[in-house]
């Protein structure tokens, strides 16, 4: 008799399924939407800061619920930065929220000045101006989703760090 018996075939399938179970359970977990968005934001922030330094133009982050975009000042108006898909307007996944703060009061004043002092309601877009000269400015962006929180911090030395925040 040649070939495998039914028992031998079942044993082989059992061994293969156990090996698959071990491989799957030890595989790295997939990143959550909030972690992925924080990482993407950090990369985009680096790209935009480099572009601002090269062009010597002020750049701002415009964010409102569900979206954000980077814009550059091209007198007399602001326009979205056109460096490809990495800097295009970003819609956040459902359930992911973004808050951004800067420690520099000057940044808020620059935003008002460059926006010609137009009044903004609290529900509208918020602005953070990035200095093209690279002056010290700490920016903190916090992404949250169902209790998971990640922060992207641009330190006053220019380093951009992504960190998981503790509850």
Q: Would you kindly provide a written description of the structure presented here, covering whatever features stand out?
A:
By secondary structure, the chain is an alpha+beta fold. The longest helix is centred in the first third of the chain and has 23 residues, at 33-55. The strands form 2 sheets. Strands 1, 2, 3, 4 and 6 form a 5-stranded antiparallel β-sheet that branches. The chain has a 4-stranded antiparallel β-sheet with strand order 5-7-8-9. Residues 117-121 have low confidence and may be disordered. It is elongated, with a radius of gyration of 24 Å. It has helices spanning 6-26, 33-55, 105-114, and strands spanning 59-64, 67-74, 77-80, 90-91, 97-102, 126-130, 139-145, 148-154, 160-164.
What secondary-structure arrangement, pairings included, does this model have?
Elements: H1 6-26, H2 33-55, E1 59-64, E2 67-74, E3 77-80, E4 90-91, E5 97-102, H3 105-114, E6 126-130, E7 139-145, E8 148-154, E9 160-164
Antiparallel strand pairs: 1-2, 1-6, 2-3, 2-4, 5-7, 7-8, 8-9
Element-level helix/strand string: HHEEEEEHEEEE
Overall pLDDT confidence: 81
Strand content: 25-35%
Structural class: alpha+beta
Residues in helix, %: 25-40%
* Total strands: 9
Largest beta-sheet characterization? 5 strands, antiparallel
Give Rg in angstroms.
Answer: 24 Å
- Uncertain spans: 117-121
Distance between the termini: 65 Å
Separate helix tally: 3
The best one-word shape is elongated
């Amino acid at each position: 008799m040649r070939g495998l018996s039914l028992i031998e075939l079942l044993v082989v399938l059992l061994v293969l399924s156990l090996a698959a179970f071990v491989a799957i359970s030890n595989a790295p977990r997939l990143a959550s939407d909030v972690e992925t968005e924080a990482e993407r934001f950090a990369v985009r922030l680096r790209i935009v800061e480099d572009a601002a330094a090269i062009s010597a133009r002020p750049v701002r982050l415009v964010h409102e619920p569900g979206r954000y975009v980077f814009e550059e000042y091209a007198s007399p108006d602001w326009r979205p930065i056109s460096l490809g898909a990495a800097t295009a307007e970003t819609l956040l996944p459902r359930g992911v929220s973004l808050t951004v703060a800067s420690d520099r009061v000057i940044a808020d004043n620059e935003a008002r000045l460059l926006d010609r002092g137009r009044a903004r309601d609290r529900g509208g877009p918020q602005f953070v101006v990035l200095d093209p000269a690279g002056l010290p400015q700490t920016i903190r962006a916090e992404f949250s989703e169902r209790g998971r929180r990640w922060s992207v911090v641009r330190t006053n030395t220019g380093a951009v760090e992504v960190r998981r925040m503790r509850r």
